[in-house]
Amino acid sequence: MSALSLVALISLVCTGFAKQLDAHPPQQQHRHWAQICSGNPTNKIRGCDRYGCGSFGADRHSGKGKHVGVDVICADGATVYAPFSGQLSGPIRFFHNGNAIDDGVQISGSGYCVKLVCIHPIRYHGHIRRGEQLGRMLPMQRVFPGIISHIHVENCDHSDPTHLLTPVVPPFPQQDRHWATVCSGNPTNEIRGCDNYGCGYYGAPRRNGKGKHRGVDVICADGATVYAPFSGQLSGPIKFFHNGNAIDDGVQIRGSGFCVKLVCIHPIRYSGRISKGQILGKMLPMQRVFPGITSHIHVENCDHSDPTSNLERGKGQRE
Ligand SMILES: [Zn+2]
Ligand SMILES: [Zn+2]
């Protein structure tokens, strides 16, 4: 059998796997990543072969370098899956010499950022879901005959991803769809009604009916403490007015299956991880810019969907 027809056969088998996965989408929040390569359900890591070892921190360049990733065993031509949901970017190249395995992609989301190399992704941009087909393992044997073929998995911050690849703890029992209190003094995330400047609900008219409110305004007194509605990765600054007024600041949080922008607040920082309920920052002086308005945090989902049900905390349900 030729190498090409073998690849075709493998891909046929693996399409079956992908369909099976699609039929059972994960319903829970996962602390560890999904299977990355068909044929390796436990994300088994490459041991040692004559080219080196696959563990994190293994020697490279005759001991002058260190392996800053982990090598997940994956047969040439096997189907590759997304370890978590996130945004794709790339191509990510490792060798920069155009060899047969010099391709890869980055996924950023769900509180993680990882580069997967020696694979050919189905695309280099857009959103991908955990467990969804991401691409195909490239022909590593052609470049390194006899090597244990593998995907090089590298965290964007060069930290060790081993514990995320090999689960030692059970996943969270259930994903919490309800966000924590966003502003001190407003424990139920009460939404701004209508005032001289407009209304606070999602879809409210803006610019004399020419526009629509793409977020929800959570009531928050000037200077009040602001909390993270869910755990995730911070990025920013996020500006709304772009005119440098007293409330032109904000931050994005991505993680736990959500992505939201909180504006008219000053965050404690614009990067790194934050946990649900942790102090995120302070409400800016909105009365200075809009005297008499119901001061509020503008809360906007990154995909512009309606965040109201997440803010409501299940109306009377306990956390
Ligand atoms: Zn590697
Ligand atoms: Zn708003």
UniProtKB/TrEMBL annotation:
According to the record, the signal peptide region is: 1-18
Q: What UniProt keywords apply to this chain's record, in alphabetical order?
A: Disulfide bond, Metal-binding, Signal, Zinc
Q: Name one GO molecular function term.
A: metal ion binding
* Keyword Manganese on entry: no
The domain of life is: Eukaryota
Record-stated family: Belongs to the LECT2/MIM-1 family.
* PANTHER family referenced in this protein's UniProt entry, alphabetically: LEUKOCYTE CELL-DERIVED CHEMOTAXIN 2, LEUKOCYTE CELL-DERIVED CHEMOTAXIN-2
By what name is this protein known?
Answer: Myeloid protein 1
Organism the protein comes from: Falco tinnunculus (Common kestrel)
